[in-house]
Amino acid sequence: MSCDVIWxxxxxxxxxxxxxxxxRPEPLSSQVGASACLNGKVVGLQGPIKVLxxxxxxxxxxxxxxxxxxxxxxxxxxVITPEVVAFEDGPLRGKYASHGIAVxxxxxxxxxxxxxxxxxxxxxxxxxxxxxxGVGLVWVNTLLxxxxxxxxxQAGVPSVWILRxxxxxxxxFCFLPDPVAQRAIAAIGLPRKVVFVAHATRKVWEPFDTRQxxxxxxxxxxxxxxxxxxxxxxxxxxRDALGLKPDSIAILSVGTLCDRKGxxxxxxAFSMLPDALSRRIQILLVGDGRGAYAAALKKRCHALPxxxxxxxxxxxxxxxxxxxxxxxxxxxLSSKVESFPRVTLEAMAFGLPIITTPVFGVREQVVEGENAxxxxxxxxxxxxxxxxxxVCDDARxxxxxxxxxxxMSQMTTFDEMVAAYGGISREAIGCMSR
Length: 434
What we know:
Blueprint: H1 3-15, H2 38-46, E1 49-55, H3 62-76, E2 80-86, H4 92-98, E3 102-105, H5 116-133, E4 137-141, H6 146-155, E5 159-163, H7 169-172, H8 178-186, E6 193-196, H9 199-205, E7 214-216, H10 232-241, E8 249-254, H11 264-272, H12 275-278, E9 281-286, H13 292-303, H14 306-309, E10 312-315, H15 321-327, E11 330-333, H16 342-349, E12 354-356, E13 372-374, H17 380-391, H18 394-408, H19 414-428
Parallel strand pairs: 1-2, 1-4, 2-3, 4-5, 5-6, 6-7, 8-9, 8-11, 9-10, 11-12, 12-13
């Protein structure tokens, strides 16, 4: 049976809901020895570590932005000399270039790996790229880039894998046929260090920590990237720029429009609010999307009665996201699955009360009843009640805003996060300074 036929059959099974969980594989064991640290040893103690970092895309998305900030931060501290490989181009390419960091954009490969044979071909190509780069360490960002972990192993270069997803290990790779999905899962045993951004996510993969290589580093965000001041005058300016009325309540949601992010919850909740209340509200969905979910969500918004329809704005991803945080009164995170979302940290930094689904690492960020209210994913009725509760109680909203700023002051800072990754990187190449 040809590879194309295997791929087609698998996709039909997925579309029909016939795809079951991926059987558990045994984790692979790394054969990268101490000799592979020669380059890292030379530059790890006496100079920066030469790092090749793999990013699934260069869009203004949480995982890609986090990698960008981390790479730039360690580069400017002299810890690493980085080069970036991305499988999809985007605006972050310019961000890297502005700091003098080289970026290679290569064709995506996940649509090609229907069999282990095809996966092997793509891994060979990536391994050659790693060898030609002459690096001492490979960073791999997100589960989607598992072929880069396999390639680093084949190239004989130690790796660090940063996992930012919280889906169950036997479900995340269901878009791939079992043999390839099992190889992707088994790759968790190869890196010198596997970094999770939340303790809840680490627990998902705990059964595979056979080398005691797992660790947790909470996300810290670089607030310097926000040119907008977090003060009353700037809030007025930003609200005027967005055309928000002084007495309106702006509810902000940030993220790609997709099923995992669950923005349909917010649209449905808004449709349930009493007219007198909905007239005071402006919904700002910043992120947009290109898939079927985004199209269906836009169709649902257009189907609302005219007054309500005009109260929902869908805005493309923007580098000027700080203006939206500064203008907003309330932040909603409606995701079904998240690890340690940076948008929650950003909302807290701007002093916003939060309504969120209490999924995975979100509970490690906010405190229910203090700076956040919870609702289960998909429960639009409860979300509507929580919105009504906060919109109608200005004093409570302001108290929660204060608590958000206080809570943010207790979170991992950007400098602390960068230092932790620097330590992990040195440890990964066996050159931990004494």
